C-alpha cells in the first residue's frame, strides 16, 4: 500500500489493490509526485486510520511495517504520531533524502536504529538502499512472526469496530462525542481531532470501557475532523469518523444608550454567553451625522 502526503495525506493505493509484483511496479511508474508541505505526523496518523485497517487490506495476523520516505523536516509533531504506531506494535523504517532531519528520523524510527534509519543526499541514490533494505525488511518480518502469535480470527473486522458516532451539544468551544462499542470491547480508544483546513492533530486516549468524550478548548467557528479508533493488543479496528463545525462566539445584544450629559453617557447591553471581558470603542460621529 502507498500514501503520499504534504499538508493533506492521500492514499494512492491500498494493501489489497494489487496482487502481483508487476501491478505494483506499474502503479509506481504511473505515480505523480505530490509537492507541498511536510506534515509527517498527520501522514502517520493517516496511515494508521486509513491504510492499516481491515477494509484497506490489512490482515490482523500479518506483521505491520511502515516505511516513511521524506525529504524535509516535519512541520507538525511526527514523534507523537510515530510513538502511537510503535505502541501498537507497528514497526517504522525512516528514509531521509536531501533536507531530511536525521535527528527526527531517529526519533520516528523503531529500534534498532542501525537497521531502521537511512539517509541519502539525493533521490537517485535511493537505488543503493534497495538491496540492503529488502534483506532487512524480510529478516525483521520473519523474526517478528516467530515471536508473536495471535488467536484473533482474520475476519473479525466488524467485531472490532464501534458504530454510530454521535456528535452533540456543540458550542463555540466544545462538543460531545458518543458511540456504540463493538461486540468485542477494545483495550482502549484513540480519539484524534483536528481542524479540517489544517492543524496539528490532538489525541485523547480512553479506556476501552468508555464510549463517550467531551472535547473542550476548541476554536470557534471551525470545522473539525474527528476519528474514534479502537485499539486491541495485536490489532486496530476500523475507526469511526465525523465532521462538525463549532459555533461562532456569542455576541452581546440590545445595546442601549442612556443618561446622556454634555460629557458622558451610559451604555447597557445583554451579555454575551461565555464572555470574560468587553472592549468598548467610542468615537465622535463625523460632521453632518446624527449625534
In words, what does this structure look like?
The chain is an alpha+beta fold and 291 residues long. The protein has two domains: 2-147, Rossmann fold (3-Layer(aba) Sandwich); 163-246, Sandwich (Immunoglobulin-like). Helices cover 21% and strands 27% of the residues. It is built from six helices and 14 strands. It has helices at 21-29, 40-51, 78-87, 102-108, 113-116, 130-147; strands at 2-4, 10-13, 65-70, 91-97, 117-120, 163-168, 175-180, 188-195, 202-207, 212-215, 223-231, 240-245, 253-258, 266-270. The chain has a four-stranded antiparallel beta sheet with strand order 9-8-11-12, with no helix packed on it. A three-stranded parallel beta sheet has the order 3-4-5. Strands 6-7-10 form a three-stranded antiparallel beta sheet, with no helix packed on it. α3 (78-87) links the parallel β3 and β4. α2 (40-51) runs parallel beside α3 (78-87). The longest helix is centred in the middle third of the chain and has 18 residues, at 130-147. Residues 149-155 have low confidence and may be disordered.
In short:
The chain contains six helices and 14 strands. With 291 residues, it is α+β, with helices and mostly antiparallel strands. Helix 2 runs parallel beside helix 3.
Number of discrete domains: 2
Radius of gyration: 26 Å
- The count of helical stretches stands at 6
- What gap, in angstroms, lies between the N and C termini? 70 Å
Q: What CATH architecture label of the largest domain applies?
A: 3-Layer(aba) Sandwich
Percentage of residues assigned to helices: 10-25%
Please name the CATH topology of the largest domain. Rossmann fold
Q: Oligomeric state of the chains?
A: single chain
- What characterizes the major β-sheet? 4 strands, antiparallel
Mean pLDDT: 87
